[in-house]
Design goal:
Elements: E1 2-5, E2 12-15, E3 40-44, E4 54-58, E5 73-75, E6 78-82, E7 85-91, H1 105-123, E8 130-137, E9 149-155, H2 160-176, H3 180-191, E10 195-199, E11 202-205, E12 216-220, H4 227-233, H5 238-255, E13 258-264, H6 282-285, E14 289-295, H7 304-307, H8 315-324
Antiparallel strand pairs: 1-2, 1-6, 3-4, 4-7, 5-6, 7-9, 8-9, 8-13, 10-11, 11-12, 12-14, 13-14
Helix pairs in contact: 1-4, 1-5
The structure holds zinc ion (3 copies).
Length: 328
């Protein structure tokens, strides 16, 4: 397998004749005592032992491998490199049947702490430019394992969507010396039509130009660029974030059976690059957030909807519906 860069859109693509993922059948690889369980990278016990440990494990069929160097090279005008990186599975609970939105706030906090620690740790490796935390829930979302897990990848490049956000937030900052996310949040709070819930330092809202019906984001209200640094330094606010994540996912699960969740945080700022200017003001201009993209229809999309997003419900209507749901 190798990574190839599209010379026009500058997106990296994983290319390989063996990309077809292995299927894991029979027993659960992530339940305690599983035979041939993947290698454990880190374990985090709850401070008061009220819940079982959460664990990071090596993905059983990883997209990226930790050994070696990226060896970025040219093939004529093209760029390619090896699929060096990390691909981990974060086991959210030792229980096979408890998902994040059914967990206690303490359990969710423990999972978020583990995620923050793994991101920090992987950013210590200067080969990696970006670490992504994501969760695919439900078959239409491409869920791979039955056990309640999330995944984490560390890559030698910044993924396309994050790169768009970084470039746009840097441009906005250059012009206005303000964070575009803070400005957006300020206006949304004033207008109060797309806010779903505000809890302590965190807000859940449906973005103005949602890409899919019922898209919902969770953001810190004060300016923070790095999820992992904030979690490590502001443990006092962790409970608020856990509550909001639990309640938001309950809302999503009342409307959809499947979703993608992704954390967008700063790229690896230990990896200072002189070529890519976005590192310079990134702590001022970028603002971490969690994006949740519910999947409603499993019908195949016609081509034009792949190039232009279309949603049949406005984010105002989606936020109103979310607010009216009974959540515990
Ligand atoms: Zn299991
Ligand atoms: Zn901000
Ligand atoms: Zn984002």
């Amino acid at each position: 397998m190798e990574l190839r860069k599209d010379p026009i859109t500058r997106s990296w693509v994983i290319v390989g004749d063996d990309v077809e993922r292995q299927q894991h059948s029979g027993y659960c690889l992530f339940c305690p005592g599983a035979p041939n369980a993947p290698q454990v990278i880190a374990t985090l016990h709850s401070s008061d032992h009220s819940a079982g440990p959460v664990m990071a494990m090596v993905h059983p069929s990883p997209l990226y491998r930790i050994e070696g160097e990226p060896h970025r090279h040219a093939e004529g005008i093209y760029d390619a490199m090896n699929t060096v990186g990390a691909h981990e599975v974060l086991v959210q609970s030792i229980r096979h049947d408890i998902e994040l939105w059914q967990s206690s706030d303490a359990e969710i906090s423990q999972f978020l702490m583990l995620a923050a620690q793994r991101i920090q740790d992987l950013k210590g490796d200067l080969r990696f430019k970006y670490v992504t935390l994501f969760k695919n829930y439900g078959a239409p979302a491409g869920q791979e394992f039955d056990h309640p897990v999330s995944e984490l990848t560390a890559t030698t490049f910044v993924p396309r969507r994050v790169l768009y956000e970084l470039r746009a937030s840097r441009d906005y900052y250059m012009e206005k010396e303000r964070c575009v996310f803070c400005d957006t949040l300020g206006q949304e709070i004033r207008n109060n039509v797309r806010i779903v819930e505000s809890h302590g330092n965190y807000v859940a809202l449906c973005p103005f130009a949602s890409r899919v019906p019922y898209e919902i984001w969770i953001m810190p209200r004060p300016h923070e660029s790095s999820f992992e640094r904030s979690i490590a330094s502001k443990a006092a606010h962790l409970g608020e974030l856990s509550t909001l994540i639990r309640r938001t996912l309950q809302r999503v699960m009342s409307i959809a059976e499947s979703f993608h969740l992704v954390l967008h945080t700063v790229p690896n700022t230990y990896q200072k690059s002189n070529i890519l200017q976005y590192w310079k003001t990134v702590d001022e201009d970028y603002h971490w957030h969690i994006e949740i993209l519910p999947i409603l229809a499993t019908r195949a999309k016609p081509y034009f909807l792949k190039e232009v997003y279309y949603t049949h419900i406005s984010s105002e209507a989606a936020a109103e519906k979310y607010r009216k749901l009974a959540i515990r």
